[in-house]
TrEMBL record:
Domain of life of the source: Bacteria
Catalysis performed (reactions): Mg(2+)(in) = Mg(2+)(out)
A single GO cellular-component term on record: plasma membrane
Pfam family, one: CorA
Source organism of the structure: Gordonia asplenii
Record has Cytoplasm as a keyword: no
Protein name: Magnesium and cobalt transport protein CorA
Membrane topology (UniProt): Multi-pass membrane protein
Amino acid sequence: MPSIPSIRGAGWGQPPRRDKPPLPRIPVPVSRAIVDCAIYVDGERQPGNYAYTEALRRVRESGNGFVWLGLHAPDDGQMQGVAEAFGLHELAVEDAVHAHQRPKLEVYDEVQFLVLRTVKYVEHESIQATSEVVETGEIMIFVGKDFVITVRHGDHTHLSGVRHRLEARPEQLMLGPTMAMYSIADRVVDSYLAVTEKMEADVDAIEQSVFSQGGLDIDPVYLLKREVLEMRRAVAPLIGPLSQLTGSNQIPKEVRRYLRDVADHLTTVIDRVVEYDDVLSSLLDAAAAKVALQQNTDMRRISAWVAMAAGPTMIAGIYGMNFDNMPELHWRPGYYVVLVAMVLLTIVLGRNFRKHNWL
C-alpha cells in the first residue's frame, strides 16, 4: 500500500498544507577553517600553497620537515577530515571542536594534545563603568612527529605573529614541531603577564574607592573578584601540563629548557593572581567592617537622641496624669520650672553624649 503524505489542515475554506522534507545540510569545506598551512624543512618555510593532505604526503614521502596547519573554530565535519589525514584520536578531536576545556595535556601514542586558555584585557575607563575585565579564548595544539596543528577559538587568539617570529629564526624551527608548541605557550603566558599588570591598576583603584571618604560601592569589588577568579581558572591548571612537558622524553632537551622558562613565568602570573584574589577578599572584609562600623555609629546617634528625648517625655508624662493630689500641681511657677528642668536635662545629656563621641 503506498504511503500517504501527511496533510495538516489550515482551517475551513483553506487548502491543506503538505509537510516539506527538510533541506539537506550542505557541509562547509575545511578550507573555510584553515588559516595557514605550510611545510618547514630545515627551519625554512617551503614556497607554495598546499592543501593539508598534500603537505603531509610530501613530508612523509621525503622523511624530512614537518607540517604546520592552523585552524580557526572548525566544526565537526571540517575537523573529521583533518583527524583522518593526521591520525588524531577522536576524544581529542571532540575537545578541539567543542572547546570550553581546562588547560591540560593528553598523550595519544605519539601525538600530544595541549589545551591552553587565552586571556585578553578589556580596556575600560573605570571598573564601575564596565561589565567585563578579561575575555577568554582557547588554543588547542596537536603535536606529532612530523606535524603541528593549532585550533583556535576566540577572536583574540591570532597566532600569525608567533609563526612569523619563528620563521625569522630558522635555527629554532629546526628543532621541530615541539618548538612551535613552545612558542605558542610562551606567547600565551606572556599575554598573562601583560593582563595581570593591567589588572593591578584596577585592584589599586578598587582599594582606593573602598577606603575613600565618599560613598561605598561593593559591586565593583565583586565584579573584579569574579574576573580575577576567571583569570585564575584559566592560568592555574596550566602548571601541571608544563611540568609534564618539561619532564617528557618526547620533547627535545633544548625545547625542554625553553619550556622551563615558560613555567617560571607562569609561576609569577599565578602568584600575582593569587595576590589579587587575596587583596580583593580583604577589601570585601574591610568593606563589610566599614558598613558595620557605620551602622554602629548610626545606632549610637539614634540611641543618644532617644535618651535625650526620654527625660522630658518622662516628666511630661508624670504631670499629664491629671491626679488632684500631686506635689506642686497648683503651684503658680511650676509650669515654667518643669520646662526649664526639661531643657537643662536635655542639654546635660547632649553634652555628655558629644563628649563620648555619640553625637
